[in-house]
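User: structure tokens for this one?
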Amino acid sequence: MSEKEIADVMKMSTGTLRQYQRIFNEQLKMEQQLKAVKLKNKQWSNTAIANELGVTEGTVRNWLRSEAKIGRASCRERV
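Assistant:
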């Protein structure tokens, strides 16, 4: 089914459909990042986390690095 056909069935424009897709994809990414952090806290390796989430080890490494930066910034804000 094409994007236009899907939008027509859902009675929305293709632009609105794309907005929903972006929101969904961002939500999925955030959930995966949170799961990666939780698994890392359980001492999982980056490779094992990547296999579990269906992403590359480099993606997991980047997510965890970003999370660490956010955590450090949050700690500095509390001081």
